[in-house]
Each structure stands twice: as C-alpha cells, then as structure tokens.
Amino acid sequence: MQSSVFTKIVPVPKQARLLEGAGFRLERRAAVTAPAAQFGPVMTAAKRIHALFPEAGEKAVTLSIEKAPFAARCAEEGYCLTVTENAIDIVGYGERGLLYGVITLEQLAKDADTIPALTVTDWPDNPIRGFKEESRFGSDQMEREDWLALVEDIALRKLNTFAISLYGCWGVQYDGRCSEYLFLPLKNHPELSTPKLVKYYSPTEGRWIESEDLPPIFRDNFLEDIFRACRDWGIEVVPLWNSFGHNTLIPRMIPEIAPVDEMGIGQKFGFCTAKQDTYDFLFSAFDQIIDDYMIPYGMTSFNIGLDEVSGGINKDPDDVFRRVDPWCKCPACRDREKGEIFIDFAVKLISHLKKKGMKQVFLACDMLDSKRAGGKQLGDVTEKLLKAVQDADIADTLVISWWAYHNIPEKMQVRNLYPERGLRNIVAPWNGYQMWCVALQPLGNIHLIGATNHRDGGEGMVSYSIWDRSQDRVHDALADYSWGYEDAGTPNDVTKRYALRHFPTATKEAYRAYRLMDYAVEQRNSTKWSFPDAEHVSMLDLLFYRFNPYIYAYPKADAPYPRVFLDEALEWALTMREDLERALYNGSAVAREARSIFLSLAEKPGCDRFQALRQAYECMNYLTLMEDWLAIFEMYDLCNAGDNLTVAAIARKRAVERIALMQSCEDTKEKFVVKAMTMRQHSIFLQLYLDIADWCEKNPAEPLDLLNMRHVLSDRSWWLR
Ligand SMILES: [Zn+2]
C-alpha cells in the first residue's frame, strides 16, 4: 500500500503536489496573520490556527480570503494551501474554504515533526455534504457535549450540512409504547413530550438498570448551542419535522387534527390535511424553530419528511392490531385522490417555509415514486408534482431527497434522479443506522448512490444516520464521495487510506481486519430483499433481519404480542439450517480473526488504539451473535434428545459470553450508546439464556420446545420486551 503525505487529508483533495525544497518544521511558534471575525468559520479558522501556533515566532503563517482563480460550482468552499520551509499560506476562496484549508493543515500536522514543502488546491464537487442524525435510540440519550462532539466530528470531515430530526415516530416496539421522539419543547403545546425508558443489565455496576427520563436535548433545551456550534463550523443546520408519516404523538395527543375513518374515529397516525387547525399546528412549530434558531443563526434549510405515509397495524398503542389509515375519510377529504392530497399538502408546507425565508426544503422521494411502498398508493404523481411546483413557484426551493440503503446495484431502489424534470435533488445513503443491533459497513451503498448523484447532477448527499464513532471509516467514505466522487475511488480505496491514516505502523493488518468486517456483515443479492436464498446467504439480512431480537419487537398481524424470541426466528432458521450453519461457521471464523487483529493493533505503537478497541468490540458482537445461533441449533437437537442438563450448561456458557460482550460495550462505547437500545438488546439475549438454563435445571425430564418459548421466559424477559 502506497503511503503518501496526502493520504492524511480527508476528504481526498482535488490537486496536491510536493514542492522542491525543505519542509516546514513544526514548532509551536510563528507570526500568524489571520482575518478577524466575531463568529462563523473565519473565527473558527483563526482560533484553530492560533491554537496550532500559540507563541510568536519568525516563520510566517498567513490566512486570507480571495476570490477563486477558477470557476467551479463550489469554488467558494475551496482553498489553496502552500507550505514552504519558512511559510504557510492558506488562501480561502470563501469563509468555509478558509476553514477547510486550516483543517487540511491540521491533518497534515498530525503526528508530524515537519510538513514537506507542498501545495494543495482543493474544492468540493457538491454544495450539500451532510449527515443526518435521526431521532432514535442513541440521539435520545445524547447530552450536550455528545451533540457538540458529533458536530465537530462531521465538521472535521469538511461536511457542511447537519440535518437533525426534531420530531419522528415509529410503531410500538417496546414497553407497549409507540417509539416517539420530540427533541424540542413546543411553546404552544407544552403537554407534548416523549420520556424514554432505559432498561438493561450493567456488568460494570453488577445490577439491572431502569430509568425513565426525557431526552437530554429536550430536557435541557440546548438546541441553540447546536445551531451556534454549526454556524461557527460553517455548517448549515437542517431541522427535520416529520409532517405526515412517522407521526403518531401529535394525532394521538391532538385528536382534532388527526385523520378520521368512515365512522369519524380518529386514526392516531397522520393528519387531516383539509383542516386549517392542522396547518396552524404545523406552522406554529415550524415558525418557532425558524424564529428562535434559524433566523438568528442564518440558516435557511428545512426538512418536512413526508416519507412512508402508509397505514397498517402498529400505529395505535391502545390496540396494536388495529388497522390505521392516514388517508382521512372526513367529508372534505374522502372524495379526493390520495396523490392530489399529498402534493397539495407538500406544496402548502413548502410555500409557507419559502415565505418564512427558507431557501431549500427537503422532501423524501418514496411517496413520489410509484414503484416504492409508499408511492404505490398514489400512482404516478410526476405530472401533478411538476405542475403544482410551477404554479406555486417553489422549484427553486424544493429538494428531493432520494434515499436507498442497499449495498448491491440490483437491489437499489434509486437508480435515477430524473434530471430532465428540472427539480433539485440530493441522495441519501445511510451509515448503517441500526447501531444498537450490529454495526453494518455500508461503504458500497454510499459509493453506489454517490455514483447516481454524480451522473445525474445532484447537489450532494446527506446520510441517514445514528452517530457512533464505530462508523468512523463509513463517515470518511461519506466525506470522500460527497466531496469528490471521482477522486474517492472504490470502497476498498477508502479502506486503504483509512488504514494508512489510523494504523500507519500496521497498515496491511488493519486493511485485512476491515475487509474481514465487510465480509462478516456483507449484503448479497438474494431472491427477496430480506430473505437469503440457498445459493448464498446474505450475512447482513441474516444477522440483522432474522437473528436479532430487535426485529421481533414490532407487532405482527395474526401473531400474539409481544412476539416471542426465539420461536419465529428458529422456525425459519430450521427450514434452511444447513446453509445457515455454513454461513455461521464461515462468518464466525471471519469475525474471530478480525477481532484478534484489532486486539493486537490496539497494543501496537503508532496505531489508533481507540478505534482498534472499538472495532474489536463490534467484531465480538458479530461473533457472539453467530456463536449464539450455532449454540441454538445444538441446543435444539439436545432438547429433542431430552438432554436438558447439557442444554442448561450450553445456555449458561452463552450467558457468560454475552456478559463479556456487554462488559466490552460498557468499556469501549460512550454512555449514550450504552444507555440506548444496545445494552437492552444484549440483555434480551442474556436473560433468554438464563431462562433456558433455569428451566432445564428445574425440569430435567420434561421436554423443552425451543420453538415455543412463551412458557419458558421469565418475568424479567417479558419486562425487556
Ligand atoms: Zn379530512
């Protein structure tokens, strides 16, 4: 693997070359000249350059802003950095460009005594390069310093957009409650709040933890601090408010604006879009965000969501099996086409936001795509959309966000941004998102959708994500493919550069370990998206969609609720047991080797110990899950043979392994990750094994049916479901 000083720069720079002559010896002294500013990226650039050279000295370090000497879509985010023996010169072609020049210098200076004489001229391809933090497990536990660390983490990758979900809801998953998240107290509706239950076993504390608290961002209401930090990093904040789908809290708490069925009964999901009260509610929430945070901090972007507006069960916590329909049947709504209702509603919201000064309003693509689940209900609405956008004069404001999270080309739902329609577009890959289950490695997804953005002239990408530092390499891929798609190369090139940066003394080993991780959770093509076929098992689909208790937390039609883990999962697994055992033996060997490499890298001088230990945990998580399922197959056979005492011994051993994994989680991950769903998932497995062992020891002669665990599970297990 070729190391070069330029590998240290994230994302990959456009033009970089070494110059003749000696390099700049890094001492803490220099005569620094930098433009002054009270806030914003220029202030941050100056602050950081002074931190790099805190003492006066002879060598000159000069920061300045000039007009770019070249034409490019994002020239003003560009910079030119020149390093010679006695001088460092950073010319920003705009305010952000200046800061990016300083960040590049910091990257070159890291772990170096001397920066070689060189010059870098750099600018991004895409004006929108961002990270979206979903309101979900993880963000609901993040304290102020965690949010500010997130913002810094993306800023140092030269991402310029931070989308933050302030309101979003999913169905009932745990504790018989809808998963609802409100991250901002509403002045007009102080009754709306979403306390979060935390339940898990802590090996560190040696006890079960149970608490219920408001999300810290709501409890302490520090949204303004996030806006301020983003402004100073040159980051555009995009508040996201789910305004139709992903919306149960508001229609449940304010039934006057909920859609109704034929009998006039409120639906607890969606809105009646014919009522002025609905707009009054939404606009008062939008305006609070805009007036209190966006105008004072100069932000002009908003996301109204509008994805997945489809009914079904599991939207009503009082009756999880009741079929709920978001399409209102009141006299004003019932005779209108769904497509018309949707487009009218979207256009009204966007028009209001434009009037309030928003320059871009993001809207999810799926309801506009008649091939996708949501859009199927509406049919082809392209003509309607284009006409409505024209009539309302919002073509300059609406930005379609094309989201798709597959790693394989054949499965991608987004392959075209239809540039001929003349609308603005961005793409949304994901960062793995469900970090509380298994760390996925979606570099392929980012690469693929980045290619579509590049080909079709999109404005960039904003990932769908939950922040976790374990996704460090994935986040570098996001930065690389949104800054300069062609320069970024393949996902393996991203991995090579990452290995060179973080493990310079053991690059080959690190590269091997990351590739092994990619294979441990690889997504393969299969006949159905979430259903591996016998030809090759898709490890991602197996580990996430089949073998994880999380997926069985949702109610399912015609099945008792709460659903029981193992029953359904094991029943399915037995239908293709041989293929799955092959996949598990292969996969566990891969995860075991990757883990052992990371553990050795953690001890090597010059290597990134923090990341090595973290990745070792993620590999241990893969490994434990795979060994669990091999053990479950073994226990199933022993149960059928009536050998309950051996089953108990195996279950106790799995419990010990699970506790070791949980200890590693508490040792390596931040408190907000631990407190969120991650440790609760682990605890569900832990208690399952304890229950099996207890039952088998108590009933050594009674047949145990692992396909029917309902009578085996303890109260503790049900408490966790
Ligand atoms: Zn209605």
Task: Describe it.
The structure is a single chain. With 721 residues, the chain is α/β, with parallel strands linked by helices. The protein is 42% helix and 15% strand. The protein has a 6-stranded mixed sheet with strand order 1-8-5-6-4-3, with helices on one face. Strands 9, 10, 11, 14 and 19 form a 5-stranded mixed sheet that branches. Helix 3 (144-155) runs parallel beside helix 5. The longest helix has 32 residues, at 609-640. The two termini are 48 Å apart. The model has no long low-confidence stretch (mean pLDDT 96). The structure holds zinc ion.
In short:
This protein is α/β, with parallel strands linked by helices. It has 22 helices and 19 strands.
- End-to-end gap: 48 Å
* Rg, Cα atoms, Å: 27 Å
Helical region count?
Answer: 22
Q: Which sheet architecture does the biggest sheet show?
A: 6 strands, mixed
Shape: globular
Strand arrangement, largest sheet?
A: 1-8-5-6-4-3
Strand content: 15-25%
User: Would you report the number of β strands?
Assistant: 19
Characterize the quaternary organization of these chains.
single chain
Q: Characteristics of this structure?
A:
five-stranded mixed beta sheet, 15% strand, 721 residues, six-stranded mixed beta sheet, alpha/beta, binds zinc ion
